[in-house]
């Protein structure tokens, strides 16, 4: 399992109901890399995340997504997860009656397969350690999954799951929204702890702020359902300082979605 | 209409059973009054459920079994409900016989009575007479009348003033064999400022055409606290009728935790009468409807005392072609100022052919009160399934987690681990 992960997204097109949102997106992520996708609201950033994970509402109409040589688009959602994909969601579901810790164990064991279940002691040890990193109270382990959690608690819980499941490719969908600066640092800390040559990251964000704490290797700007500009961390800084208008001008985009679908 | 000639019991059979158990004369009189009333009274009127064609009087009421000397000799279906090697306080009844009894030493030293009903009638007749069939009247309808005529066991639990018991007391009721009747009467009296938890389970062995008709009466004294947990896992060959009722005095607390896991037709009514000032009731029910069973499950609270509080939660999962009518009735009487009654009925539908009705009913005759209800009938959310699957859990397991999770907040409250585990197993079995 030491192979360096490799995610290839080629000319991906996807629609929700009859509206095309992704209009030919191409991106490549390898182990050890952190990619950030920025862009105005309504340009398809979250759709990209949901489409990669396989949300039933989104339909892929064209293109390819290959993870380590396997066609991700032919897999069910759970198969994608077991293949190493993880999505920290912007709006995670609340599941009553299922404790965080029972859920995590089920998820870990689903990945490990029958006969290879994690021992309870080891599980508890790992969980304790990771909850400490994320400064989560012990009681979270026994609370029902996301039920009654605040926005910030849900985000931490997403990162906790990511840390426990040790995926190959991590997508973080606006993990910074609704977080105050202290919580943001804690979450960033958890993510940074996971950076390794065996893991790639795709960080979707609206604000450059997060990228002060999680330094990206690549920054991409998404507009109108595709990546319109790519660069290094300096691109994020320029976006923060100058907004998106200069890119639109540079590329001659009259971007209706920016103002229309906030 | 007189008693139907087709019945397999009569005055003589009842009298004979009563004499064999050396029951006091007043109790035999009650039985015979019940028999007479059974021939005259109608069946209870139930919301959206007709039970005329169910079996309520075709059985052998007094099938007896031998007593066993150790818990390890009990039938397997019973042993599954207990920790047979560490039995402290346990009563087991099979059909018309008390077959096992153990009481922790602590009970005797604290003056607690925990015994089968027949023994209680012999040894504590006056105490029993003072309470028996006062909260539930023998002549409310045909089923209470039949019950009174044919009571073939039960439990008497008496907790004196200021006595608190930390360890739950347990009873297991088994019905087995063709045409058998299980007709227990459970009577719990908790005197002022006492505290007790009682847990019972109803199970069935092999047999066809069986019936259970039980009554539970609870007296919660001033400042007393009583918790009753009951899990019924009777087979589809049993028609089950149960009427549970508690009356709660000033500052008393009554809590019900109910697992309605029968496979057969079921009528269950659970009522708490909040008589005293600042008395309170909590009722939690879970049920899984399977096969083609019909269930009518009612949770009810009557507020009489001022500042009385109630909270009812009922959750049902519906599969197959089952029908469950889930009634919640909050009644606040005139004068029950500052009363607060909340109720919620939630049904999860897993099958197109099943039927689940949530009926919240608020009957309020006082202005200065709070009352609320919430009812829902829904399906497993695709968004929730997606979320669990996105962590690597397959669809089937994701659904299972969500369904069990829906019921878990009630299941988690069951106070005895064996019973809780059995309930979880019953859930898994019923949810296939």
Report a brief summary of the structure.
The complex is a heterodimer of chains A (262) and B (432). Chain A is an alpha/beta fold.
Mind explaining what this structure looks like?
The complex is a heterodimer of chains A (262) and B (432). With 262 residues, chain A is of the alpha/beta class. Chain A has one domain: P-loop containing nucleotide triphosphate hydrolases (Rossmann fold, 3-Layer(aba) Sandwich), CATH 3.40.50.300. Chain A is built from ten helices and ten strands. Chain A has helices spanning 45-53, 77-82, 100-112, 120-133, 151-165, 181-194, 209-213, 233-242, 245-251, 256-260; strands spanning 6-16, 19-30, 34-38, 58-67, 70-71, 85-88, 169-173, 200-204, 218-223, 226-231. In chain A, α5 packs parallel to α6. The longest helix of chain A is centred in the middle third of the chain and has 15 residues, at 151-165. Chain A is globular, with a radius of gyration of 18 Å. The model of chain A is unreliable at 258-262 (pLDDT under 50). With 432 residues, chain B is α/β, with parallel strands linked by helices. Chain B has helices at residues 11-20, 25-40, 76-79, 105-109, 117-123, 125-131, 142-150, 382-389, 395-411, 417-431; strands at 90-94, 97-102, 113-116, 153-159, 169-175, 181-182, 184-190, 195-204, 210-220, 225-233, 238-248, 253-260, 266-274, 280-289, 294-303, 309-318, 323-332, 340-349, 355-364, 370-378. Chain B has a ten-stranded mixed β-sheet with strand order 2-1-5-8-10-12-14-16-18-20, with helices on one face. In chain B, α1 (11-20) runs antiparallel to α2 (25-40), α2 (25-40) runs antiparallel to α7 (142-150) and α5 (117-123) packs across α6 (125-131). The longest helix of chain B has 17 residues, at 395-411. Chain B is globular, with a radius of gyration of 21 Å. The termini of chain B are far apart. Residues 1-5 of chain B have low confidence and may be disordered. The A-B interface holds A 53-56, 76-78, 80-82, 86-87, 89, 92-93, 95-98, 103, 106-107, 110-111, 144-145, 161, 165 and B 381-384, 386-395, 397-398, 401-402, 404-409.
